[in-house]
Amino acid sequence: MSKANERTALVTGANRGIGLEVCRQLGQLGHHVFLSARNKEKGSKAIEDLRKENIQIDFIQMDVADEESIKISAKEFGKKSEKLDVLINNAAILRDTEINKMPTNELQDVLNINSVGAFVVIREFLPFMDKGSRIINVSSGAGALNDMGTYAPAYSISKTALNAITKQFAGALKRKGIAVNSVTPGWVRTDMGGMSASRTIEKGAETIVWLATEASQDKTGLFWRDKKVIDW
Predict the structure, then answer these.
(1) Angle at CA 159, nearest 5°, toward 122 and 229?
(2) Annotated active-site positions, please?
(3) 3-class SS of residue 228
(4) Do 16 and 46 contact (CB within 8 A), yes or no?
């Protein structure tokens, strides 16, 4: 069980890439981190590696594509902690079919994981969150309508939807003192971004961790890149 005076954080899709690095950095800052992933074996291996770095961390198995899995995960979390200070929706998939050739199920699958999944996670974990808590949705510049191109249509659409979810929850939770923001980490060298990407994983995690720890609590309902507000 988490101690009453320690900050807690839950990161989805965190067994690798940016999510794993966010767990590492928050753990180094003294948070009790809950690493969430669909695959139990991969999640447990990530936990084992981070514990070698003296990071206080636990594993929560959760498939963000499955509403029942999310509800079960929230119950499991409740057995380990009475509160959640930081929720980071990082889990996502990328599909790159041209929109005029895209099967319906591809759009549905990507929306379900990248957007609907984040919505359900927020809703189910909100009972653990109170004034001063923070929700960070890991979005993408590809989801900004003001300069959207034709890149990865299903992914881009899902991130636009995630930004809308951010705005809705930010408005609904403002009086409660819970900050809700979207962030684009940029083009990062991960399995999704590829090794040609311009940014390191550490740089990709930087603004996410800043929003989770240092950003002013009254900054909510915004879209961020490199600690600066950008257009939707």
Answers:
(1) 85
(2) 155
(3) strand
(4) yes
Q: Are 60 and 73 in contact (CB under 8 A)?
A: yes
Of 75-79, 136-140, 163-167, 182-186, the poorest mean pLDDT is in 182-186
Burial grade of 231 (CB within 10 A; 0-12, 13-18, 19 or more): exposed
CA distances (Å), 16 to each of 46, 91, 192, in order?
8, 10, 11
Quick: pLDDT tens for 16-55: 999 999 999 999 999 999 999 999 999 999 999 999 999 9
Contacts of 149 (CB under 8 A, 6+ apart): 142
Q: What is the mean pLDDT of residues 208-226?
A: 97
The pTM of the whole model exceeds 0.85: yes
